[in-house]
């Protein structure tokens, strides 16, 4: 190859390389998408992967997708940066709307669940209240039946006392006449034990029972004398019960004098009824 030919080939190669470099320079200088478009893409992608947004706000999310696709089309075909930024902004706003719609839907769902739970709790409360009321009624009925049975049992067990027995609001009252004491005396007579031993047995068998012993007199004598006599007679019965094994905490004794007659003091028979000791057994 001649010298002239070699120079010609080198010149052609140089021109070709320069052209290639020029073309490469043009490729590197191509514009990058606006940051607003990149942000819109990322914002939409995050919303799209959120199951709550996708489920509760499908329409708003679809509108955001449409505006994003439009922005990408404009950038690819026209490189209209101003229009692309506008469409990217619209996309971002529509994603925000989709999120807001999803949050509203979640709040409404939570509210429905809370209301349902509230109704369930109220229903349970009403059911429990009804059940408690029914149980209370049944318990009251049972207590009344038990009280009646206890009263009957007491009357049967106290029948050996040879005393007048009656059921009152205060409890079961045993009225012991003046058979326990001699006239104007506060010492138990020898026959008193026969009348009081059944009471001793009963109180020892039922230690939870409480007893009030009340002494009463007729109107013969002064008020102070009768009050003292009635107190001493009640105390004599208390002493007898305790000495025979009854717990002293079960018993209260008090004298009431002539203040509570059960018959007229104008006759001997009436005065005899008023000279008495009453034993009140609480239920």
Can you write the helix and strand succession as a string?
HHHHHEEHEHEHE
Distance between the termini: 142 Å
How would the global form be characterised? rod-shaped
Radius of gyration, in Å, reads: 54 Å
CATH class of the largest domain: Alpha Beta
Number of domains in the coordinates? Answer: 2
Mind explaining what this structure looks like?
With 283 residues, this protein is an alpha+beta fold. The chain has two domains: 33-126; 152-281, 60s Ribosomal Protein L30, Chain: A. The chain contains eight helices and five strands; from the N terminus they run H-H-H-H-H-E-E-H-E-H-E-H-E. Strands 1-2-5-3-4 form a five-stranded mixed β-sheet. Strand 1 (164-168) and strand 2 (171-176) form a beta hairpin. Helix 2 (35-48) packs parallel to helix 5. The longest helix is centred in the middle third of the chain and has 78 residues, at 81-158. The protein starts with a helix and ends with a strand.
């Amino acid at each position: 190859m001649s010298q002239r030919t070699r120079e010609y080939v080198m010149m052609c190669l140089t021109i070709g390389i320069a052209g290639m470099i020029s073309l490469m320079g043009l490729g590197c200088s191509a514009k990058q998408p606006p940051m607003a478009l990149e942000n819109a893409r990322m914002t939409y992608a995050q919303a799209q992967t959120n199951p709550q947004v996708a489920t509760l706000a499908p329409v708003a999310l679809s509108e955001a997708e449409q505006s994003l696709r439009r922005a990408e089309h404009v950038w690819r075909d026209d490189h209209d940066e101003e229009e692309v930024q506008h469409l990217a902004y619209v996309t971002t706003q529509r994603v925000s709307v989709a999120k807001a719609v999803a949050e509203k839907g979640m709040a409404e769902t939570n509210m429905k669940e809370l209301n349902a739970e509230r109704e369930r709790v109220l229903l349970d409360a009403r059911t429990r209240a009804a059940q408690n009321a029914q149980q209370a009624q049944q318990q009251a009925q049972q207590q009344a039946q038990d009280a009646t049975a206890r009263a009957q049992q007491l009357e049967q067990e106290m029948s050996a006392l040879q005393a007048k027995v009656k059921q009152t609001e205060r409890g079961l009252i045993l009225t012991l006449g003046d058979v326990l004491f001699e006239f104007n005396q506060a010492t138990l007579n020898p026959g008193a034990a026969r009348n009081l031993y059944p009471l001793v047995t009963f109180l020892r068998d039922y230690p939870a029972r409480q007893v009030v012993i009340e002494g009463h007199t007729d109107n013969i004598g002064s008020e102070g004398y009768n009050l003292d006599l009635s107190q001493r007679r009640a105390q004599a019965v208390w002493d007898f019960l305790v000495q025979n094994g009854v717990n002293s905490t079960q018993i209260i004794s008090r004298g009431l004098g002539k203040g509570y007659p059960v018959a007229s003091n104008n006759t001997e028979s009436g005065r005899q009824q008023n000279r008495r000791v009453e034993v009140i057994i609480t239920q």
